[in-house]
TrEMBL record:
Domain of life where this protein originates: Bacteria
Protein name (Swiss-Prot/TrEMBL): 3-phosphoshikimate 1-carboxyvinyltransferase
Catalytic EC class: transferase
Alphabetical UniProt keywords: Amino-acid biosynthesis, Aromatic amino acid biosynthesis, Cytoplasm, Transferase
Enzyme active site: D326
Gene3D superfamilies assigned to the protein according to its UniProt record, in alphabetical order: Enolpyruvate transferase domain
Localization terms from the record: Cytoplasm
SUPFAM superfamilies attached to this UniProt entry: EPT/RTPC-like
Gene: aroA
Species the sequence originates in: Sphingomonas jatrophae
Role: Catalyzes the transfer of the enolpyruvyl moiety of phosphoenolpyruvate (PEP) to the 5-hydroxyl of shikimate-3-phosphate (S3P) to produce enolpyruvyl shikimate-3-phosphate and inorganic phosphate.
Length: 450
């Protein structure tokens, strides 16, 4: 298939942003809901599932391995699971598109099933390191043949029964943790992951919710020891997926930056392992509050009210990186408009996301007039103190949805247009982004014909 032609766009805000919106379902939870439903015995129902391309790649893979996954309506899915150990050999390569989460978690699932699966992906995903999951899964007995540098395309030949391991995460990654736990689901005995820095814990919460025997201990130094008993029988569930805090980040920062704005983002998941951005914005002086706090499907949820705010510079605590790892690109935009200097450190993981998010944001922000300095593990930003950026440049999204949306927001507070060369990647995690921003009062700018 020919790749779609690029979809350039630029946005502006003729006035304050105002209104009440809901962002699509949480991407991390959506992937896990499909995978665990496919591994349960019987029929699960999911509502609020993210209908984004990344999650659809997971659904297609579960189907290719024998689970029935049916989209019954907007965000409403029915999954008929085959049981842990019951997945079938897929007839063709599993196309993971742009999705690191689908790839790494499913490699874990396949590793302990008696099947072989080939994983392929787009140019961005094919450049991302898979060695971090190959290493523990090979220790469990999976036979994995990867392209040079531990990249896609790669083939996983599972071993059943696999060998339980105790694995200390060398990098703070929920994807690596989840890959090992999911492999442990169909492995006899106890599989253990030791996590020195807490990462998102949706896998742990949901595995327990499906009836797996899983314990989490803390050793007093914030290290978490997660143990799962394998050969589990998962019971089908009804799952409600909350709104994605990583998507809510874009309208929230936009509302902070556009003077006079007042925006309510409803129904946002606020799991503490995910909510770092909102605390950072509050520390910068944002007028941001949480309303109607509640719990849905084992996850904390609230509505977030954000008003236009004068922000101050920020220095992040490197220990908090995992709680907002995907939100740094949009936080860099907030820092570019804040008063004073922001210093971001400990962000090396950003270099191996859909793009090198430190380098790509540094280049793009510099091109639209922000004062930034890239460092080995982060960025130093001298903010404008609320003045608009110059704009007047085209920035490359590089197949990275979060880069595209970050510069869409930067355009709202720039004099001249900020043209994003391709908005298409936004469909991986936030279908409806443009419509939502338009509801709030943002507008697409007319671009001169090329
Ligand atoms: O487990 C997950 O759902 C995710 C974990 C994070 O990746 P890492 O585990 O590579 O940090 C995050 O960046 C990604 O968007 C989703
Ligand atoms: C890093 C991300 O996703 P993934 O690793 O699943 O591609 C993201 O959504 O920002």
């Amino acid at each position: 298939m020919q790749p779609a032609p690029p979809a350039p766009a630029a946005f502006h805000a003729p006035g304050p942003l105002r209104g009440t919106v809901r962002v699509p379902g949480d991407k991390s939870i959506s992937h896990r809901a499909l995978m665990l439903s496919a591994l349960a015995v019987g029929t699960s129902r999911i509502e609020g599932l993210l209908d984004g391309e990344d999650v659809l790649a997971t659904a297609a893979a579960m189907r290719a391995m024998g689970a029935e996954c049916v989209r019954e309506g907007d965000g409403r899915w029915m999954v008929h699971g085959v049981g842990v150990g019951g997945l079938l050999q897929p007839a063709a390569a599993l196309d993971m598109g742009n999705s690191g989460t689908s790839t790494r978690l499913l490699m874990g699932v396949v590793a302990s099933h008696p099947i072989t699966a080939t994983f392929t992906g787009d140019a961005s995903l094919s450049g991302r390191p898979m060695g971090r999951v190959i290493e523990p899964l090979a220790r469990m007995g999976a036979d994995i043949t990867a392209s040079p540098g531990g990249r896609l395309p790669l083939m996983v030949r599972g071993l059943c029964p696999a060998v339980p391991i105790e694995y200390r995460l060398p990098v703070a990654s929920a994807q690596v943790k989840s890959a090992v736990l999911l492999a442990g689901l169909n492995t006899p005995g106890l599989t253990r992951v030791i996590e020195p820095v807490a990462t998102r814990d949706h896998s742990e919460r949901m595995l327990r919710g499906f009836g797996a025997e899983l314990t989490v201990e803390e050793d007093g130094t914030a290290t978490r020891i997660i143990t799962i008993r394998g050969e589990a029988e998962l019971r089908p569930q009804e799952i409600a997926v909350p709104g994605d805090p990583s998507s809510a980040a874009f309208p929230a920062v936009a509302a902070c930056l556009v003077p006079g704005s007042d925006v309510l983002v409803e129904h946002v998941g606020l799991n503490p392992t995910r909510a770092g951005l909102f605390a950072a914005l509050q520390a910068m002086g944002a007028d941001l509050s949480f309303e109607n706090a509640r719990e849905i499907g084992g996850e904390p949820v609230a509505d977030i009210r954000v008003r236009g705010s004068a922000l101050s510079g920020f220095a992040n605590d490197p220990r908090d990186v995992a709680s907002m790892v995907d939100e740094y690109p949009i936080l860099f935009v907030a820092a570019a408009l804040a008063r004073g200097r922001s210093v971001f450190t400990g962000l090396e993981e950003l270099r191996v996301k859909e793009s090198d998010r430190i380098a790509v944001m540094a280049q793009g922000l510099a091109a639209i007039g922000a004062r930034v300095e890239e460092t080995a593990d982060g960025l130093i930003v001298e903010g404008t103190g609320g003045d608009r950026l110059a704009g007047g440049a085209t920035v490359a999204a590089r197949l990275d949805h979060r880069i595209a949306m970050s510069f869409a927001v930067a355009g709202l507070v720039s004099h001249a247009p900020v043209i994003i060369d391709d908005m298409a990647p936004v469909a991986t995690s936030f279908p409806g982004f443009e419509a939502l921003m338009t509801t709030l009062g943002a507008e697409r700018r007319q671009l001169a014909p090329a």
